[in-house]
User: What shape does this take?
Amino acid sequence: MKTLKIFSLAAVSVLLSTVIIAQSKTETFKVSGNCGMCKTKIEKAAKEAGAKEASWNAESKELTVTYKSSSTNAAKIQEKNSSSRV
Ligand SMILES: [Cu+2]
Assistant: This one.
């Protein structure tokens, strides 16, 4: 009976960690740009880096991204944006 208890506990923790890893995250960070063309480029670069959703605000110069933490991260999105735009 004890082994069954330990086994089910392990199964639950594996299931829980899978759920946490697959969670989607939303983050906002500054990306420099000026106009609508910049907006298109910034959002495109973010999506190429794995973001599910990307929205750049020209006034606040902030990029809000939603991504799955298992497929990408904010650093990758930021790096893609600085490397693909000159
Ligand atoms: Cu521009």
Remarks:
- The chain has a mean pLDDT of 88.
- Residues 2-22 form the longest helix (21 residues).
- The chain is about 50% helix and 20% strand.
